[in-house]
Write a structure and sequence with these properties.
Number of strands: 8
Radius of gyration: 20 Å
Low-confidence stretches: 13-22
Mean pLDDT: 75
Length: about 140
Amino acid sequence: ATQHHKEKHKNKTKNKSKSKREDNKLVVHLKSLRAGDMLYEQGHHAHRMFVVLQGRLSVVYEDSDDIIEVQRGAVVGALGFVTDTTHNETVRALTAAKVAWISSANASRHPEQWVIDIARLVARTLSPTVERFVRLG
């Protein structure tokens, strides 16, 4: 019976450490959008930051008639997210789209991890543009 109790306790401890390790990870969520769906609206608090995985989104600033179109690899909502303020733009899906997002609550528990992940994402996003300019120069 003692050996059985030790094994049971060992398994409980393993499960607890696994949960703790999972809590230490930055959680990335996925969201699907249909054409016309609003991702977020200007003036709302920026609790999330998004990366476009598929499809095309429109970015519209209230004080501008311009519509900026973004697609795979683009990051939207980052300024308000990082500065803990409101969104400066409204973002809608132009086509069916999929985005990945992180929440400010999760990111604040793991600032070192999300900063590294965002830096990598920005580097990957900018890399093709930089290479294109280098070839043109």
